[in-house]
Design a protein that fits this description.
alpha+beta, three-stranded antiparallel sheet, Double Stranded RNA Binding Domain, 1 helix
């Protein structure tokens, strides 16, 4: 058994938080940020029991600006 640090990307949809792990592709949700991350951790651990993750590099996460015409 090993511990691996993964990334969680969260966004709010109406009254819930949606959490996604980009390295694995798992997604979960919760009423709070903490609950969404807890649920994502559980979903990811269950997924990785069936489909182990090989060695991968960390995704690059950045921000960018987009011009939007109104």
């Amino acid at each position: 058994m090993s511990i691996r640090t993964l990334i969680a990307v969260l966004h709010k949809e109406d009254d819930i938080y949606v959490a996604e792990c980009p390295e694995v592709g798992t997604v979960s949700q919760g009423c709070t940020i903490e609950e969404a991350i807890k649920n994502l951790k559980e979903a990811t651990e269950l997924y990785l029991e069936e489909f182990p993750l090989g060695e991968t590099s960390k995704p690059l996460i950045t921000a960018f600006e987009a011009t939007i015409s109104a």
